[in-house]
Specification:
2 copies of one chain form a homodimer.
Chain A: H1 11-17, H2 22-28, H3 32-45, H4 57-74, H5 76-88, H6 93-119, H7 129-143, H8 150-162
Helix pairs in contact in A: 1-2, 3-6, 4-5, 4-6, 4-8, 6-7, 7-8
Chain A binds a DNA duplex (30 and 30 nucleotides) through residues 10-12, 20-24, 26-28, 30-32.
Chain lengths: 174, 174
DNA sequence: TAGCCTCAACCAAGTGGTTGGTGGAGCTAG
DNA sequence: CTAGCTCCACCAACCACTTGGTTGAGGCTA
């Protein structure tokens, strides 16, 4: 998937990759649609990572960004598939709902953290919670296409929001 | 293209849309590759808009963001194709070079403006030129998938960088 | 026997691409 | 004017191949 994308997704190839006949594949997934639905389901589920509990909005946001950055760098293929899914969602209702569900959770988490920070006066910038949520989501979605720039993007985003100087070479502190 | 994407791009369909036989299409574009190359060429060329000349980095950046926002809102199909191209570029060298060329120009423009602003001390935030360039590019690329959030994303980005309160309902001032 | 899981063979519907040929616009020589 | 010629855009028919999906016939374990 991550290599060929949906455009190059062939049932025979998938079957061969897992070492079975392509007709056998139909035994597990009745139609190609079902396979794709399962892919969408599986992929979005991969993002269910429970970050460390933090009551501080700033470090919560920082931790979230760091976690995303790590994921982009360590599992670029996962994000590659996500891009395919985002595109596919435009024409495939099943994928669309899976992605919408996934994104709704993400969105509410981000907005929650940002609102929390605003009420506590953590940000020293004009931060609109919803707008910033969209900004972060857009930035992450965009960086999926260029994982090598992940460090820069996340670093700068963090600097702007949480007010820390961007440096890529910080240590292991979580 | 914007509707079906590359995955659904069929020469016969394209030919029918323009009212010719599919074999005639081969008369103009020898192979499907050639057609796709032409699409990439044409699409990237659409972004050659010469913005208003400004010596002020802040308003230059603001104008750039505004122009992009307008484009996203007015020609979402154009950006839809761009997403397809970005994805295609992963496996198609021809598309990759076209996109790389286009992106290089964009990148150098952004970095130029940001560096300019830094030397003049325009930004009152820790703005790393290259990193911020990547951030802006990532945000724009991400927002293509959700044009309805364009106003929020660009507004917030502008607020963070140029330091203006995010409001979507400003007037026609250019 | 029953219930899965597996496969080879097959099918209809496309797929990109090729071939041979048609008809009209434009040019030139008689 | 017109006969002869070359382009050019066009098409119907065709080809080799791939696609997702089906069928029926085993095999394996319980």
């Amino acid at each position: 998937m991550a290599e060929a994308g949906f455009e190059g997704l062939r049932l025979r190839q998938v079957a061969e990759d897992v070492g079975i006949d392509h007709s056998t594949l139909h035994h597990h997934f009745a139609t190609k649609q079902d396979l794709i639905g399962a892919i969408a389901e599986y992929t979005t589920r991969q993002f269910w990572t429970t970050g460390p509990e933090t009551s501080d909005p700033a470090s919560a946001l920082r931790g979230h960004l760091l976690a995303l950055r790590r994921m982009v760098e360590d599992q670029p293929h996962l994000f590659a598939v996500t891009v395919e899914l985002d595109l596919r969602a435009r024409r495939d209702p099943a994928v669309a709902t899976a992605m919408a569900r996934h994104e709704a959770g993400w969105r509410s988490f981000l907005t929650g953290v940002l609102v929390d920070g605003t009420t506590r006066g953590v940000w020293d910038l004009p931060v609109d919670a919803e707008a910033t949520t969209e900004l972060v989501i857009a930035a992450v979605k965009g960086v999926r296409l260029a994982p090598e720039a992940a460090a820069q993007v996340f670093g700068q985003l963090e600097a702007l929001l949480v007010g820390r100087a961007p440096d890529d070479t910080e240590g292991e502190r979580l």
